[in-house]
Design a protein that fits this description.
Largest sheet of chain A: none
Largest interface: A-B, 35 and 42 residues
Oligomer: heterodimer
Shape of chain B: globular
Helix content of chain B: over 70%
Number of helices of chain B: 9
Number of helices of chain A: 3
Strand content of chain B: under 5%
Structural class of chain A: mainly alpha
Radius of gyration of chain A: 54 Å
Helix content of chain A: over 70%
Order of helices and strands of chain B: HHHHHHHHH
Shape of chain A: rod-shaped
Order of helices and strands of chain A: HHH
Largest sheet of chain B: none
Number of strands of chain A: 0
Radius of gyration of chain B: 18 Å
Chain lengths: 149, 180
């Protein structure tokens, strides 16, 4: 394989190139010509090259700025979302506490009402029998004692 | 004394004039990055100027300068601070754009299209080469240096240069084989 580089080439051709197959030889020749044309053009247009540098610098700055904006947006969005969820959680907790307090209040009121009813019943039960009803009460007591006997 | 200095300065100016383009071209073909190639070319001549007094003329000015350029390029890629940029290659021109530069001899549009495709395939193969293979390939087929000159510039033996060239050519053949 390396023998193809040992031969001395024709004038204007690198040594060994003539030993290569035509397609490869042609491609290498075109590649060389392409690189020569490119480098000569680049060296010949210093001004344009500077412009290219400016464009590249601008492009680099723009891409970094965009990346920064995207990062800030992502972080901002994340923070906002976190803040929102915290606010929602706080509101829900306040609402739950309020509902709990209302339920407790209602239960307390209900309990108080029941206590009041019971107290009024007790009062009514323990009150003396009116005089007008006394004979009936005695009669009731007598009937009861006879039945026992 | 002053006259000797003037002569040395003139001699160095001639060296810059004669070798600026080949050095820039080699660096451009190796990196595909115009800015980097320009920077490294300037650094190369700056370094050469500093060491001009120690240049004995044992090798040609071309191989001496090429050796400096190769080392600068190696140092550049080895620089740890630039590892990130090495991965991204932000300023390197893409293969498509690099292949737009065509020899002007092609007559028909079809011929130009085919030539462009071939050039792109070679660029693709060059991109896949190791740093050393790429250096040897560019020095041989773009700069058309002799094997002995490549060996001197790279510090490799001629046998190693041949082996690198064979592998590089095999890669180009494979790449072109996909096209045919």
């Amino acid at each position: 394989m390396t023998e193809e580089f040992d031969k001395k080439g024709r004038a204007g051709e690198p040594a060994g190139l003539e030993a290569l197959d035509p397609t490869l030889k042609q491609a290498l020749g075109e590649f060389k010509a392409s690189v020569h044309a490119w480098s000569e053009a680049e060296l010949g247009r210093t001004r344009t090259a500077r412009q290219g540098v400016v464009h590249r610098t601008w492009r680099l700055a723009a891409s970094w700025s965009l990346a920064g904006l995207m990062l800030a947006g992502t972080l901002g969005g994340g923070l906002y979302e976190r803040h929102e969820s915290q606010a929602r959680a706080a509101t829900a907790a306040v609402e739950a506490a309020r509902e709990r307090a209302a339920a407790e209040q209602q239960a307390r009121e209900q309990e108080q009402k029941e206590e009041e009813i019971l107290a009024s019943v007790d009062t009514e039960v323990s009150s003396e029998v009116p005089n007008a009803m006394e004979p009936l009460a005695i009669l009731g007591d007598e009937t009861e004692s006879q039945q026992k006997q | 004394m002053a006259r000797a200095e003037d002569d040395a300065a003139q001699a160095f100016s001639r060296v810059v004039e004669n070798h600026r383009l080949p050095i820039f071209r080699f660096l451009l073909a190796s990196t595909r990055d115009v800015d980097l190639a320009e920077t490294l070319t300037q650094e190369c001549f700056l370094k050469a100027h500093r060491n001009w007094g120690s240049f004995r003329g044992e090798s040609s000015a071309m191989t001496w300068l090429m050796r400096i350029a190769i080392n600068l390029q190696k140092d550049h890629w080895r620089n740890r601070r630039l590892q990130f940029w090495r991965q991204t290659r932000t300023n390197a021109v893409d293969l498509d754009e690099a292949s737009d530069w065509l020899p002007s001899g092609e007559s028909s549009a079809e011929q130009r299209l085919l030539a462009r495709e071939r050039v792109e395939h070679v660029w693709r193969a060059v991109e896949g080469l190791s740093e050393r293979q790429r250096t040897v390939f560019v020095l041989r087929f773009v700069e058309e240096l002799e094997l002995s000159e490549i060996a001197t510039s790279t510090g490799l033996s001629e046998g190693t240069v041949k082996a690198h060239l064979s592998r590089a050519l095999a890669r180009v053949r494979t790449e072109l084989g996909g096209q045919r």
